[in-house]
Amino acid sequence: MATQVPLDSLDKDQLKTFSDFLMSYNKLSEMCFIDCVTDFTAREVKSNEERCALNCMEKYLKMNQRVSQRFQEYQMIANENALAMVQKSGQLPG
């Protein structure tokens, strides 16, 4: 029998996920804008500003992906170590 997740909980989780996404997006936008946009005298985005913003975004996303990857690796090692400690203490059959 499947466990049902309360609708309120699902809505809160989705809202939190969306909120986290927006915070990350806003941080990325602000950081790249500050670093790349230098000329406010024209309406058009200069090609060097556009190139800079695209590079900035790509680097940020790659960095974010790498940090997430390393965090997952760390979590796996931590879980394996915790399981080994439990097995060593005799609380779980090995």
UniProtKB/TrEMBL annotation:
Keyword entries, A-Z: Chaperone, Disulfide bond, Membrane, Metal-binding, Mitochondrion, Mitochondrion inner membrane, Protein transport, Translocation, Transport, Zinc
Domain Tim10-like: 14-73
Keyword Cytoplasm part of the UniProt annotation: no
Entry's Gene Ontology molecular function annotations: metal ion binding
Cellular component terms (Gene Ontology): mitochondrial inner membrane
InterPro entries found in the cross-reference section: Mito_inner_translocase_sub (IPR050673), Tim10-like (IPR004217), Tim10-like_dom_sf (IPR035427)
Any Gene Ontology biological process: protein transport
Top-level taxon of origin: Eukaryota
Transmembrane regions: none
Topology in membrane: Peripheral membrane protein
Matches recorded under Pfam families: zf-Tim10_DDP (PF02953)
Cellular compartments annotated: Mitochondrion inner membrane
UniProt cross-references to SUPFAM superfamilies, sorted A to Z: Tim10-like
Function of the molecule: Mitochondrial intermembrane chaperone that participates in the import and insertion of some multi-pass transmembrane proteins into the mitochondrial inner membrane. Also required for the transfer of beta-barrel precursors from the TOM complex to the sorting and assembly machinery (SAM complex) of the outer membrane. Acts as a chaperone-like protein that protects the hydrophobic precursors from aggregation and guide them through the mitochondrial intermembrane space.
Subunit field text: Heterohexamer.
Entry domain remark: The twin CX3C motif contains 4 conserved Cys residues that form 2 disulfide bonds in the mitochondrial intermembrane space.
Similarity comment: family membership: Belongs to the small Tim family.
Annotated protein name in UniProt: Mitochondrial import inner membrane translocase subunit
UniProt lineage: Eukaryota, Metazoa, Ecdysozoa, Arthropoda, Hexapoda
